[in-house]
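Entry:
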Amino acid sequence: MKNAILIVMMTAGLFLGCSKDLIAPAELSNNPLESQLDKAVDALVLKHRSQLNTVGFTLGFWKNGESHIYGYGEMEKGSGRVPDAHTFYEIGSITKTFTATATVQWLNEKGLSVDDPIRPFLPSVIPTLSKGGVEVTFKHLLNHSSGIAYFPSNLSLLINPAKALDNYSEAKLFEYLEKGKLNATPGTTFEYSNTAMGLAGTILARENKQSFGTYLQTKVCEPLGLFDTKAKLNATEKERLSKGHKGVKEVAYWESLGALDAAGVLRSTVSDIIKYGVSVINPPSNALGDAMRTCQVPTFTDPKNLGEKTAICLGWINLKTQDEDDAVLFHDGGTGGFNTFLIVDKSKKLVLTVCYNSYNGGSKEEAEARAALNNDILQLLK
């Protein structure tokens, strides 16, 4: 797990910087402090509390067939409402693991492969996306080796990112892709790309003539019993949605990412995320499960940028080994006001997730404290 902090900074951070004044969550919790495990978790939270830089968070894990979920702080600054297992958070880039599964399942249904080029599924005005004689394939989109930029150059997130993303249309994405510029030969270099993953989702939406969120909910979330994992919440569900914060200041929700929805549009709860993690360990015996298993197979390594042990799967990052049967699968997410983590240790049959309702641009202090809490909880559960 030594490279976890590095991965956090690469995958979740949109605006890297330093947070001058760290905040600690209010001294509120639903931890019953009854068992030794309850008390041990609480002690670790207290150890890192002053550096977590959040208004509130929910922490949950699954081990030995049992789930344990704890809420700390507040859903909204000053509200006194403690977040819990069923509090909704924006889960940001964890969405990408769902996107990869949905894409692989769709390709399988069409008799296609992740090694097939994306060219036939793009408008004719877009040139063949290639470099060094290598065309971009679906695999390249899903494992961040396409050479497509982190964000498209015709999208600015500096002023009002929530509005800019919501207005980023399919037409704008294709306008950007018309330039046909790749930063590297596909399949040679890890370059984390919201654009590439967004493009995968846009292709799914176009081919199936429905929104990406609807397609994902129908094909992946609901079949896995994840009824609290979705792109859009109804009025009743919004009552369980935490506010997002930067420091203690509320920030706008990312209601939509437009044509980049597949990069991070989902909302979910810790209860649902744990259920999802368990399904990753034990995929169903059907077409969906086949796609989930495919997404866990290492497809790419880049020792220079990621270290010797880290492998990139489809949608997932394998932090421990290049063997899918002994994997520690990881993804995190960062939106305007939320930061989320999901770690699935397949060999130990362990799932850990933490969802924060504050995100401050991936500052070093914040990222290190949150990674340290993750690591301490994992050590506790060994």
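The chain has 13 helices and 13 strands.
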